[in-house]
Write a structure and sequence with these properties.
There is one protein chain. The chain is of the alpha+beta class and about 325 residues long. It is elongated. It has helices at about 20-25, 30, 80, 90-95, 130-145, 155-185; strands spanning about 1-10, 50-55, 60-65, 95-105, 110-125, 190-205, 210-225, 230-245, 250-265, 270-280, 285-300, 300-310, 320-330. The two termini are about 35 Å apart. Helix 5 (about 130-145) runs antiparallel to helix 6.
């Protein structure tokens, strides 16, 4: 069983509530090499400045993190942010770095520490939702009409009325900006595509001075999410290559799979099912089948549970795994 407890710091406007996708760490690339991650097929998500997870293990020293450098400093939601398509801006805004330390069973049957690092970025970004565009247009309209005090106005009561309207409009614009960011970090609609890669090393007896190369991999994830204006259904596909040179293992894997994700609009709740078929060059082929349930308790707390079977090349049989976790979010 894998247990995760996380803290995610997301760069958002003051008072903006975080969404389930923006505080979830379930699909961090560095975790994917463990074969017991809650999900191997992660949907492109919104802003995440820093997420840190503590993972339960026999020595209690397991952890993972994910961060997006673009959000280390403040950014406005300008034209370059909400546009769809490809380009350098898309890569820089979505680039994430991740790392993890977790326990695995080596070829001898002993538990050893595996440390992995990974990165991911979008290569194709879908458009914003219709709801976001509506909020953006309203925000722009308020900016044009609010705070305009007629020239030559000297009456104190009329001046006070205009100033009150300006302050009210400014507050409404801030609220709309928060709603826009909240809508944006739920994820893009239409077609999205991302690239990820990760590498790991194994360390015996908690000796971090003499690690041995374990695994490296690269993969593409594509997704399509219709803009329904309500509940979202995302269809995702994965193609992945892994080179496993863990001590006692010498194999390469080719994975292909799909995930169906349903995110509910009125309820902060999502469910998904995932299937991945693994072809191995020097061992038996195997499968990963899993289900993931995520629920956002409030603006700063979400919980998830995952269960299924995952790959086991050593025995040629699939292994049962379970994952439970918490994610804490902080917005600023």
């Amino acid at each position: 069983m894998l247990f995760l407890c996380g803290n995610s710091h997301s760069q958002e406007a003051s008072g903006s509530p975080l969404t389930l996708d923006s505080i979830s760490l379930a699909g961090a690339p560095a975790l994917a090499l463990s074969d017991s991650a809650p999900t191997d097929i992660a949907r492109p998500t919104g802003a995440k400045e820093l997420g840190i997870s503590l993972l339960g293990g026999s020595d209690g020293g397991n952890f993972a993190f994910e961060t997006k450098p673009y959000w280390w400093s403040s950014h406005s939601i300008g034209e370059d942010f909400y546009k769809a398509g490809t380009g350098v801006d898309v890569i820089l805004q979505t680039l994430s770095l991740s790392g993890a330390r977790y326990e695995v069973e080596n070829a001898k049957g002993d538990d050893v520490a595996e440390v992995s690092i990974g990165l991911a970025f979008d290569i194709l970004r879908g458009p914003a939702t219709k709801k976001f565009n509506t909020l953006r247009d309203k925000h722009a309209e308020l900016g044009r009409v609010s705070g305009n005090i007629p020239q030559g106005l000297t009456d104190e009561e009329e001046l006070a009325w205009y100033k009150m309207q300006r302050e009210s409009s400014a507050a409404e614009r801030r609220e709309l900006a928060n709603d826009m960011i909240t809508e944006m970090v739920k994820g893009r609609v239409g077609w999205n595509a991302s690239f990820a890669t990760a590498t790991s090393f194994q360390f015996e007896d908690k000796d971090y001075t003499g690690g041995e190369f374990a695994k490296t991999g690269a993969w593409f994830v594509t997704s399509y999410t219709p803009d329904t204006g309500g509940n979202q259904i995302s269809y995702m596909g994965l193609v992945r290559f892994l080179d496993d040179r863990s001590p006692g293992v010498n194999d390469t894997y080719f994975d292909a799979g799909a995930r169906l994700l349903i995110t509910f609009d009125e309820r902060p709740f999502s469910i998904s099912a995932e299937y991945i078929r693994r072809h191995a060059d020097n061992s038996s082929d195997s499968d990963r089948v899993s289900a993931l349930l995520e629920y956002q308790v409030d603006e700063k707390l979400s919980v998830f549970a995952s269960h299924g079977i995952t790959f086991d090349q050593a025995s040629g049989k699939d292994e049962i795994f379970s994952a439970l976790g918490l994610s804490f979010g902080i917005g600023k």
